[in-house]
Amino acid sequence: MGSLKIENVKKAFGPVEVLKGINLEVTDGEFVVFVGPSGCGKSTLLRVIAGLEDSTSGRVVIDGEDVSVTPPAKRGIAMVFQTYALYPHLTVKNNMGLGLKQASTPAAEIDRRIGIASSMLSLEPYLERRPAELSGGQRQRVAIGRAVVREPKLFLFDEPLSNLDAALRVNTRLEIAQLHRRLKATMIYVTHDQVEAMTLADKIVVLNAGRIEQIGGPMELYNSPANEFVAGFIGSPKMNFIDGARLGETAKTIGVRPEHLTVDLNSGAWKGTVVHAEHLGADTNLYLDCEKAGLITVRIFGVYNAEPGATLYATPDPAKTYRFGADGKVLK
Amino acid sequence: MSIATRSLPRTIGAHAILLTYTAIALFPVILVIMNSFKSRAGIFGAPLTPPTPKTFDLIGYTTVIGQGDFIHYFQNSLVVTVASLFFVLLFGAMAAFALSEYRFRGNTLMGLYLALGIMIPIRLGTVAILQLMVASGLVNTLTALILVYTAQGLPLAVFILSEFMKQVSDDLKNAGRIDGLSEYTIFFRLVLPLVRPSMATVAVFTMIPIWNDLWFPLILAPSEETKTVTLGAQLFLGQFVTNWNAILAALSLAIMPVLILYVIFSRQLIRGITSGAVK
């Protein structure tokens, strides 16, 4: 009911190529997250799918139907924006109903769908209010409700949590995850926050400079990144990259995640000095300046007392060490 | 903030400057209104004193209302101003929307071209305009004035409004597109209400020169049917004798409609000027 296929989509603004040939397939009911640094083209790709932006070449196919030249309203999609984008002059109820009204849906049907969506998102008490009278979290719920009532083939989310504060972000993230489970609809979600990507996605698409770097499930990307970029982008704190030559390795770069390093006071592979220690309670991040490996981050679960200036030995877990070639790709 | 910077000498200084400016700005207006209620001898004898029971005279107003068709002139002025204002705002906003919303070849060039009129006074083209109006048979019609004033007001309107339209959230317009609203509905229902303060700013800047203009009514529509108030007031300005009572009364009356329109727009105007400065 909601599959999506993107074939060799390219987009250029004048001489600047933003999307350099994207191929992607999304099956019905999947939650796909586009993630990447700002300027990587993820929002542009979403806009091309929505029809708000024409692709320079390539095809967008929704449910087996080529919609490359179909206007946004006829594509069977609904979109939730970063800035909520509610109509300021309409009440919550009319905000949610406008799209259906434009498509000349019978009034009874509109009311029924608004009823379902508003109870799902606990918006009933606010139906007669205008957006200006709502808080940020409520506004974003209305925006999500506006998408839900359309019963689209495809939900598109454009960084919907970026404008919310930290606590509300976690709540709304949970709500979106529940919504997906309940509606079993296909959702495409754009974010630059890898935590949102990891927690929500069935499938993550990592984009960089207009190209897809890797597609895969969250754990797949974490455990077997295809290249240096994905390895560095997924996981927090970031993976340590060490020049292979300094360690006497044949690979160009060696990568170790901070959580795959162990420290010892007396012996280990890399001797280093503690530069800074971050105590987060559940875990401790140590920044070590190592003689062989340079500045690295070590993540220790639980509390670990280390003073800046102290000497420590760090040892990588050989099974979880990644080797990257000169082209950035993982060496098997 | 206001507490921290408040000090007596500073407050007095600021008020002194503002009051001086207010006095200078209002002085000519008050002088005109004051003298319009005086007899001719009163005007010339002591132009700076307010009307006393001895010098009080309504002769100016009775002349204006009695002689010449002043109600009709007012009507002409009002029709010309309101119609021009309407077209300037409508077309200006539409052009501004296109310039700020759509990417097309020559967008910047078109924007510059439309704004060029700010720098080139329309009066330079008076002869050509007159020939055009003669050729199209529009001389001595209000249509001629409305067309000229619309052209005169558009550059500034396009320039100011396109800046404001750029600030309207793209997401909102895109949400409208996804909900199936037409570009016209997006423009009239979503964008226009959000730029209302800037529309008021443009309205005031456009309205006052049109209302006060003497040049084009004199050249394009000097007939009795199409005279505007400013042109009508010239009736009393003779080469040898000038009826000051009537002129002052006519001018005082002419201030009123603009003042009313200004009051209507001013609330929006202040928001327009300060928007962006304060979120």
From TrEMBL, chain A:
Q: Pfam families per the record?
A: ABC_tran, TOBE_2
Where does the protein end up?
Answer: Cell inner membrane
* Domain of life, per lineage: Bacteria
**UniProt entry keywords in alphabetical sequence:** ATP-binding, Nucleotide-binding, Transport
Q: Please indicate if the UniProt record lists Zinc as a keyword.
A: no
Question: Where, if anywhere, are coiled coils annotated?
Answer: none
The protein's name in its UniProt record: Sugar ABC transporter, ATP-binding component
Which organism does this sequence originate in? Mesorhizobium amorphae CCNWGS0123
Automatic annotation (TrEMBL), chain B:
Q: Report the locations given in the UniProt record.
A: Cell membrane
Q: Family per UniProt? A: Belongs to the binding-protein-dependent transport system permease family.
One Gene Ontology term, aspect cellular component: plasma membrane
Q: What is the lineage of its organism?
A: Bacteria, Pseudomonadati, Pseudomonadota, Alphaproteobacteria, Hyphomicrobiales
Domain ABC transmembrane type-1, residue spans: 74-265
Work out whether the entry's keyword set contains Zinc: no
List, alphabetically, the SUPFAM superfamilies matched. Answer: MetI-like
Q: Report the record's Gene Ontology biological process terms.
A: transmembrane transport
- Its recorded name reads Binding-protein-dependent transport systems inner membrane component
Q: What PANTHER family does this protein's entry cite?
A: ABC TRANSPORTER PERMEASE PROTEIN MG189-RELATED, ABC TRANSPORTER PERMEASE PROTEIN MG189-RELATED-RELATED
TM spans (from-to):
12-34, 78-99, 111-134, 146-165, 186-211, 244-265
Source species, domain of life: Bacteria
Q: Does the keyword Electron transport apply?
A: no
What Pfam families would the database entry show?
A: BPD_transp_1 (PF00528)
Membrane topology qualifier: Multi-pass membrane protein
Keywords assigned: Cell membrane, Membrane, Transmembrane, Transmembrane helix, Transport
